[in-house]
């Protein structure tokens, strides 16, 4: 990158680009480098840092800013460290260079999904600490692995562990999506994913030979799953890798203190909110399943939805505006008055 472009760059943008260059790309993410990066942030910000290995090589990093009233439940700011694979030939720039063009667009895998949010959390906390603020509720930032492949060795395991229980999370923020309009999308629930693995056994051989009882021949798609397997004959089974049947919904009623705090800040900042059900699945589902209300929110408006796409990018001004938004949201959420059962 030309040196003159680096001159005068906002330090938060520089940090964002540094994080984008860490190759936490599936299927072999460099999680060690990401954890080291986060440990360094914790040290610089004076935050507590806990590393919880939920599976071999799968570490959840928790950065903590203690509140003034430990009896209150905490605010959990969640983000995932992994990113989806890339096809470099379809990118205008190296997806792990964090190239910034002359217009201010930053290209990189994870620019929208969701390394931007991770740094926005960190930089909002940094600003608030520098300004000398203290809040009643503890703020935990959790950085989890493997979200992009289902969270099975990430948040799914973490919520079952005593280290998670000890966080005493009362409310959580997690990822959302960009919005190409003036509005900001906020997600209060998700679709229920069903991931099915079908196994079919049979005689091997080239398909052109019309071999009887081949594995492929036995897979019929005219009936529902159980019917398919019964009709296919012996040796055909299926199992669910995921099966969610009761999606949890986070309240968006003005009487809910968490929603009131969140939406109140957005109203004060003249941000138009569009509450929706997330079209896919995020780690929020694991949080909601254990009773922690969560909103999916990535503060990116006037921005095309480019997660998992070629040339994933985010404008630096949009990124910086997101830090401003979190700098307003965190005090409100971390200062929600004492709730029933917390006194």
UniProtKB/TrEMBL annotation:
GO terms for molecular function: aminoacylase activity; metal ion binding. Keywords: Cytoplasm, Hydrolase, Metal-binding, Zinc. Zn(2+) 2 binds at residues 113, 148, 308. Pfam families: Peptidase_M20. Its main location: cytoplasm. Zn(2+) 1 binds at residues 80, 113, 175. Gene3D superfamilies: 1.10.150.900, Zn peptidases. Its EC number is 3.5.1.14. One of its GO terms (cellular component) is cytoplasm. The keyword Metal-binding applies. The active site is at 82, 147 (proton acceptor). Its cofactor is Zn(2+). It is found in: Cytoplasm. Binds 2 Zn(2+) ions per subunit. One of its GO terms (biological process) is amino acid metabolic process. InterPro entries: Aminoacylase-1_M20A, ArgE/DapE_CS, N-acyl_aa_amidohydrolase, Peptidase_M20. This is N-acyl-aliphatic-L-amino acid amidohydrolase. It comes from Lipotes vexillifer.
